[in-house]
Amino acid sequence: MSNWEKAKGQMEQVAGSAIRKSAHAMGNEKLAAKGGALYMRGKARHTKEKAKDKLP
Hints:
This protein is 91% helix and 0% strand. By secondary structure, the chain is an all-alpha fold. The radius of gyration is 13 Å and the shape is elongated.
């Protein structure tokens, strides 16, 4: 399950980054903020799963 959650976190990071960059290019700051939030949620999920792997 942990590998799936890590992969899900990575996918959210990639999608959030793409949304944020394209929204900035179009000048849509509201969508850019949503993309940034998606990126950070993915980063948090990925970090959480990495930490769980290190626990005994």
